[in-house]
Design brief:
single chain; 127 residues; mainly beta; four-stranded antiparallel sheet; globular
Length: 127
C-alpha cells in the first residue's frame, strides 16, 4: 500500500515562504495524481493544489493562485508545494494525497478522488 509522508512545515512570519514535500514509501509517485489539501482549525479540509501524473493538468485554489507552486521532482520522486508570500489564513495542517484512479492528464480538487493520504504537516503563519 502506498504510504505518503509530508515534510517542510513549520512556523513563518507573514510574507515568508515554506516548501512542502510529499514522498512515498514502497511505490513511486509517478503514476499517481497528487494533491495538497489543508485544514485550518474549526474549518473543513479544502483542496489547495493538484498535479496530474503526466504533464497536462495543474490546479490551484483561488486563495493561493500566484503564491503557491506545485511541481514534481522526478529525480527524487517527490511532489513539492512552494508557498510564497504566506498569509495568516494559510495556517493549517497540510496533507498530500494520491490517486491512482484519475486519468494521467487529470487531477481533482475533490477529496473523494484520492485514496492515499499522508499524516499531515503543520504550517503556522503568524507574527
Amino acid at each position: 500500500q502506498l504510504q505518503l509522508v509530508e515534510s517542510g512545515g513549520g512556523w513563518v512570519q507573514p510574507g515568508g515562504s515554506l516548501r512542502l514535500s510529499c514522498a512515498a514509501s514502497r511505490f513511486s509517485l509517478e503514476h499517481y495524481a497528487i494533491a495538497w489539501f489543508r485544514q485550518a482549525p474549526g474549518r473543513e479540509r479544502e483542496g489547495v493544489s493538484c498535479i496530474s501524473s503526466r504533464i497536462g493538468r495543474i490546479y490551484y485554489a483561488d486563495s493561493v493562485l500566484g503564491r503557491f507552486t506545485i511541481s514534481r521532482n522526478n529525480a527524487n520522486d517527490t511532489v513539492s508545494l512552494q508557498m510564497n508570500n504566506l498569509k495568516p489564513e494559510d495556517t493549517g495542517v497540510y496533507y498530500c494525497a494520491a490517486s491512482p484512479r484519475l486519468m494521467s492528464t487529470q487531477c481533482s480538487r475533490g477529496q473523494e478522488d484520492y485514496d492515499y493520504w499522508g499524516q499531515g504537516t503543520q504550517v503556522t503563519v503568524s507574527s
